[in-house]
Amino acid sequence: MDETRLGHYQLLRCLGEGGMGRVYLARDTQLERDVAVKVLAPELVGDRSLMARFRVEAIAQARLSHPNIVPIYTFGREAGAYVIVMEYVAGRTLKQLIRDEGKLDPDRALRIAASVLDALAFAHARGVLHRDIKPANIFVSDDGTVKVGDFGIAKVEGLDGLTRVGTVLGTPHYSSPEQIRALKATPATDVYALSVTLFEMLTGVLPFGASGGSDLDVLTGHLEQVPPAPSSLCPGLPSGLDAVIARGLAKKPEDRYRSAAEYRQAIDAVLQARETPLPDFDRILQPLAQVPGRIRARLGRPSFELRQIPVRANTWWLLLLLIPLLLLLLALTVRCASDGPAAQAGEVPARLCALAPIGGLGRAAGFQASIMS
Hints:
This protein is of the alpha+beta class. The chain has 3 domains: 5-87, Phosphorylase Kinase, domain 1 (2-Layer Sandwich), CATH 3.30.200; 91-275, Transferase(Phosphotransferase), domain 1 (Orthogonal Bundle); 281-334 and 348-372, no CATH class. The chain has helices at 48-63, 94-101, 106-125, 177-180, 187-203, 215-224, 230-233, 241-248, 260-275, 281-289, 291-299, 316-339, 350-355, 359-372; strands spanning 5-6, 9-17, 21-28, 33-40, 72-78, 81-87, 91-93, 128-129, 138-141, 146-148, 155-156. Helix 3 packs antiparallel against helix 5 (187-203) and helix 3 (106-125) packs antiparallel against helix 9 (260-275).
């Protein structure tokens, strides 16, 4: 195979290499645009099962026209090589992003996850399970658009027999317990893999095997261990996020989110809570802080100094309690002034009882009247 040209595609550079072959940045000389060309390794051409898998990958992506899924342009044979030609996403993979920047800002990580969930919800509704969600298969363009690619081991409804029972598929660090046990994959399988990816985006490490343990240690962690709370590794994460990820990482598929759409709703709730501003108590209570100054202006300069009391946001509840008490004292003062001379000794202060119909004051006065009668 010509290393610089493949039919009317001019190969510019290798973008990556995997078990099925290589992906190149290429120039489509007919349509004058950059594309990504995935070339099946020549030694695999004679393997019928792998050829079928390569075809399924093309069919899976061809079924899915969505803003968050890398579109496929063509599938076939070019200059003796089997190729899948797809959109070239100018930017970085999420794997490169985490490698370059470490843990991501929580809002950014949640929005990336939300975009992936939109793609998964669309794919699941059309009978396609990705089965290999991981940072290396998520692309973030230079303008921030998130796209899911590499449907190399996807399960497509209606195309059976390509995955034998007992065959383990996926990447160990992102594999769900049911994948490790070679059980049937469901949409919850993709939910689990994305939860591992979200954990990594938020903390910069993986929930299992982050210290570089063996694949066996990683797989055992997925099957048996409880993952640490992301906030224990990265304090200050949004409230409720630990619970969201914990549900996505549940060992049993039925304990996870029922769908990618439901998972998206949980993430949206966390984002909305972060975007809702708290009340500006300093601004709200500032007029109360000016009350002493206004009294001084009306009364003239008194013999004592009325000072402006600073009101802080964390004392607003105390002011709310004091205002009713001040109003009650004012009512008592006005009522007593209208009563004239004090009641004779031994008489029950019935008017006072009338002013306090609630609480213990009315009951105490009534009790005293019953004893003295």
